[in-house]
Design a protein that fits this description.
It contains 4 helices and 14 strands. The protein is α+β, with helices and mostly antiparallel strands.
């Protein structure tokens, strides 16, 4: 894939996480573990308050699949919680949702099941601190994802539709074997306008076909 800005989407088995990233050719930072907090690099510094994790016990900060609306208010304070109706993706119907830290880079949207238990959580703001245990967050590049996958290119769907850029297989790479990524959905999509010079290449990687990092366009 040619170097363009893109969006990174992350979805846990019980929680949906949306994170944007830039697909540029940069050196990949080392994997960041939960216990590490390198203050000199805010892009990879971790903070358990903003940790996104999959696996058997998916969580986003203090939110997990057993969390209720009352739990969110207790954990984060009434002043940081706003109730709303939001469509989580494309043509989906609006759902009951909580906007945690609304209108800030830290905003987290929590979507609720009819029984008021957390179903989906979405973080999509630029400069958002929400991240996975390996430091994947807004700003993570396609090349960095490949590196975090042990250098193994993975498969994802073409751009330009509701599930555009969705990772369909980690192809047996490192992220395929990491329990923190069990049930975790990741997708890439262009972030900025596609230049006229790239329109033909963009058309080649749009639609419901399957792409890899080695796709020429």
């Amino acid at each position: 894939m040619q170097s363009t800005s893109s969006l990174l989407l992350l979805c846990l088995c019980a929680l949906l996480l949306a994170v944007s990233c830039n697909n540029t050719n940069t050196n990949t930072p080392p994997s960041v573990k939960e216990t590490e907090t390198p203050a000199s690099d805010p892009q990879t510094a971790t903070n358990t308050d903003y940790l996104l994790r999959g696996g058997d016990n998916p969580m986003a900060g203090k939110v997990n699949k057993q969390t209720t609306t009352a739990d969110v208010t207790t954990a984060y304070g009434k002043e940081n919680v706003k109730q709303d109706q939001i469509a989580p993706n494309g043509d989906m119907q609006p759902m009951d949702a909580t906007r945690l830290f609304a209108d800030t880079p830290n905003e987290l949207q929590i979507f609720w099941l009819p029984n008021k238990k957390a179903q989906l959580v979405v973080s999509s703001n630029e400069n958002s601190p929400w991240h996975t245990t390996e430091g994947i967050k807004i700003g993570t590049t396609l090349n960095e994802l490949v590196a975090l996958n042990g250098g193994k290119p993975f498969k994802f769907s073409g751009f330009g539709w509701d599930y555009g850029g969705s990772v369909t297989s980690w192809e047996g790479g490192t992220l395929d074997k990491n329990p923190d990524y069990k049930g975790l959905y990741i997708g890439l999509n262009p972030k900025n306008e596609i230049s006229e010079q790239l329109q033909n290449d963009y058309a080649k990687v749009s639609g419901e076909g399957v792409l890899t990092r080695t796709t020429p366009a």
